[in-house]
Amino acid sequence: MQIKSTIEFNATRSVSASGNTEWWKFTITANRSLSKASVEHICQIHGCFGQSFSYNENKDNGIFTYSGEATCYCD
């Protein structure tokens, strides 16, 4: 039996003028449902995580979409 799973990650990164705050807007699409821990891990391995992290989940025609934002406050 062959199993194929596809996950796509897209994000935009912004940095404040002072350089001490980074924020991202991200979208993850997958052909399978992802747990909250999986969504967080995918964002972490792409450097898109911080003190503030939230997302919304949507399912349409068997495709799961996770759209959200993350903010990191640096010293």
Would you kindly provide a brief summary of this structure?
With 75 residues, the chain is mainly beta.
Task: Provide an overview of this structure.
- With 75 residues, the chain is mainly beta.
- The protein has a single domain (7-73), classed as Immunoglobulin-like (Sandwich), CATH 2.60.40.
- The protein has one helix and four strands, in the order ββαββ.
- The chain has one helix at 36-45, and strands at residues 7-15, 21-30, 52-60, 63-73.
- The chain has a four-stranded antiparallel sheet, covered by helices on one side.
- A hairpin with a 2-residue loop joins strand 3 (52-60) and strand 4.
- The longest helix is centred in the middle third of the chain and has 10 residues, at 36-45.
- The radius of gyration is 14 Å and the shape is elongated.
- 9% of the residues are buried.
- The model has no long low-confidence stretch (mean pLDDT 93).
The low-pLDDT segments are none
Strand order of the largest sheet: 1-2-4-3
Number of domains: 1
Q: Number of DSSP helices?
A: 1
Q: Shape, please? A: elongated
Describe how the helices and strands are arranged:
Elements: E1 7-15, E2 21-30, H1 36-45, E3 52-60, E4 63-73
Antiparallel strand pairs: 1-2, 2-4, 3-4
